[in-house]
Amino acid sequence: MALMTVIEAVRSTLDEALAEDDRVFILGEDVEAGGVFRATEGLKARYGERIIDSPLSESSIIGVSIGAAHYGLRPIAEIQFADFIHAGFDQLCSEASRWSYRTRGDAWLPMVVRTPWGGGVHGGQHHSQSIEAFYSHMPGIKVVAPAFPADYRSLLKAAIADPNPVLFLEHKRTYRLIRQEMDGAPAETRIGRARITRRGNDLTIFAYGLMLHESLVAAETLSGEGIEATVVDLLTLNPIDHETILEAAKATGKVLIVHEDVLTGGLGGEIAAIIAEHAFEYLDAPIRRVAGPDIPAMPFHHAMEDFFMPNRDKIATAARELAAY
Which of 86, 126, 127, 242 is catalytic? Predict the structure, then answer.
């Protein structure tokens, strides 16, 4: 049994995918040298021309991936920071997402776009964005946001094998912060399924990525106060797991949704709508959200970044208020 970080889970999965399938290749800015976060470190030496440095052009990275996937390859594109992916928005949302639909299912597009997202690393306004709501809005693109190394491994494998485009979000704050004991191959985690990671009777917290870890810490604090929370790791943001969401919401009747993205238009609104539409009669209190404030970008200064970021204390405070309702 070995202790594995998130970045090690990503790197080892990429290594395995390249070794197992000659159609797999990686392209992106500086990936030959390992990338900014060293996710592809050492792969160039082993796989040569299948690790390709690209120009500083996100639209071309995604465009080349679309073309390669169309001709039978399985590209894994790395966007250096999620903030830069918007330059390829049209390629991803107008072309990749609609490829199978426009061909009436005659053609598939097996491509993965990996990108580090989120704040908490003093990255400022150009290196801290949460982009999931934009792309989860697009049918035809699967959006995955794991929290634990084992899920990074199993979901990245699933994404590479998927015949559809997958946006694979890797929270940069978790890369070396989160570790997990790994014993052999992890259990299979399917795209499109959430997981109840902790059970309690007083309220349900929904989260993903870094906020899943903050929610679990908050839940342990609350437990010491006699408040027991269920915590649900959403894992996949598109397609979202209605069944697990509704099961967990109905079980406690009180719902708290946590995400790092800004409040307005964030994924929390969609989860709240699902619950309000299909489980309203089970609710004992209004649905609550803890999210980033509606400001254009995350500040650089550490005090202002702390003001922006949801955290375990903010989650616990909202949970106490909800439990007392």
Answer: 127
Residue 122 known to be catalytic: no
d(CA 164, CA 284): 39
Strand, helix or coil for residue 187:
coil
Q: Structural domain of residue 101, as residue ranges? A: 2-182
Is residue 79 within 8 A of residue 28, CB to CB? The reply is yes
pLDDT (tens digit per residue) in 248-265: 999 999 999 999 999 999
Tens digits of per-residue pLDDT, 101-144? 988 888 899 999 999 999 999 998 899 999 999 999 999 999 99
Indicate if 44 and 97 belong to the same structural domain: yes
Which CATH number is 43's domain given?
A: 3.40.50.970
Report how far residue 14's alpha carbon sits from residue 32's, in angstroms, rounded to the nearest whole number.
13
Domain total of the chain: 2
Q: Do 30 and 163 fall into the same domain? A: yes
Instruction: Answer yes or no: pTM beyond 0.85.
Output: yes
